Amino acid sequence: MTDTEALKRRAAERAAEWIRDGMTVGLGTGSTVRHLLDVIAERRAAGEWAGIVGVPTSEDTTARARRLGIPLATLDERPRVDLTIDGADEVDPQLRLIKGLGAALLREKIVAAASAELVIVADDTKVVQRLGTRAPLPVEVDPFGAAIQVDFLRGLGAEPVLRERDGAPVVTDGGGRIYDCRFAGGIADPEALERALLMRPGILECGLFLGMATAVVIAGADGVSVRTREDAR
Ligand SMILES: O=C[C@H](O)[C@H](O)[C@H](O)COP(=O)(O)O
């Protein structure tokens, strides 16, 4: 395991301490969450957490969790999620996040909004003073007329790039397309930007998760630290 993967594993182990048997647990998406799925599977193999049910936030997580034998339900079946554990691409001092480099932002945000708690797991490279200085902001759009969003996004100060893989647009689990948006100097006012984006017809969601994280578990070379919403106030 590389150093970074070892840090992600440590963060996942610490975040797993939030899990109690019988909980409905939102399962995020990404390389850090993969470690969490392993931890859950190991604990279940050891006879613990027989009563937990996972609500996955992507097809990728669904497939992995199934392979590991973790019981799953849809959000329709379990609309009240006790706890979601998910990764992030950036975390700022107020526990505001950028998510979505794995293209799962829409379902992740829906599950996060249905969760009593959202615990974020990350290695310390994700910590920033200002959102948008390290990662681009993913903006998911409906494919219908997707190109008209480019000028709109530029009008908000973004430099949008359509996310592609192997020469074709990336298609999200819900059928959307993604513009990765860079902002010179970062995002000055994340709340205002999110409002402007979500009012625009055709924009389905953006990767800003504001006021949603209840705790953030960060693993670095010096150990694992936990920050809660209360600490951030
Ligand atoms: O769409 C993907 C998600 O928001 C991920 O949780 C995020 O990109 C972090 O992923 P990773 O743990 O692989 O860095």
UniProtKB/TrEMBL annotation:
<comment type="similarity">
    <text>Belongs to the ribose 5-phosphate isomerase family.</text>
</comment>
<comment type="subunit">
    <text>Homodimer.</text>
</comment>
<feature type="active site" description="Proton acceptor">
    <location>
        <position position="108"/>
    </location>
</feature>
<comment type="function">
    <text>Catalyzes the reversible conversion of ribose-5-phosphate to ribulose 5-phosphate.</text>
</comment>
<dbReference type="InterPro" id="IPR037171">
    <property type="entry name" value="NagB/RpiA_transferase-like"/>
</dbReference>
<comment type="pathway">
    <text>Carbohydrate degradation; pentose phosphate pathway; D-ribose 5-phosphate from D-ribulose 5-phosphate (non-oxidative stage): step 1/1.</text>
</comment>
<dbReference type="GO" id="GO:0004751">
    <property type="term" value="F:ribose-5-phosphate isomerase activity"/>
</dbReference>
<dbReference type="GO" id="GO:0009052">
    <property type="term" value="P:pentose-phosphate shunt, non-oxidative branch"/>
</dbReference>
<feature type="binding site">
    <location>
        <position position="126"/>
    </location>
    <ligand>
        <name>substrate</name>
    </ligand>
</feature>
<feature type="binding site">
    <location>
        <begin position="29"/>
        <end position="32"/>
    </location>
    <ligand>
        <name>substrate</name>
    </ligand>
</feature>
<protein>
    <recommendedName>
        <fullName>Ribose-5-phosphate isomerase A</fullName>
        <ecNumber>5.3.1.6</ecNumber>
    </recommendedName>
</protein>
<dbReference type="Pfam" id="PF06026">
    <property type="entry name" value="Rib_5-P_isom_A"/>
</dbReference>
<dbReference type="InterPro" id="IPR020672">
    <property type="entry name" value="Ribose5P_isomerase_typA_subgr"/>
</dbReference>
<dbReference type="InterPro" id="IPR050262">
    <property type="entry name" value="Ribose-5P_isomerase"/>
</dbReference>
<feature type="binding site">
    <location>
        <begin position="99"/>
        <end position="102"/>
    </location>
    <ligand>
        <name>substrate</name>
    </ligand>
</feature>
<keyword id="KW-0413">Isomerase</keyword>
<dbReference type="InterPro" id="IPR004788">
    <property type="entry name" value="Ribose5P_isomerase_type_A"/>
</dbReference>
<feature type="binding site">
    <location>
        <begin position="86"/>
        <end position="89"/>
    </location>
    <ligand>
        <name>substrate</name>
    </ligand>
</feature>
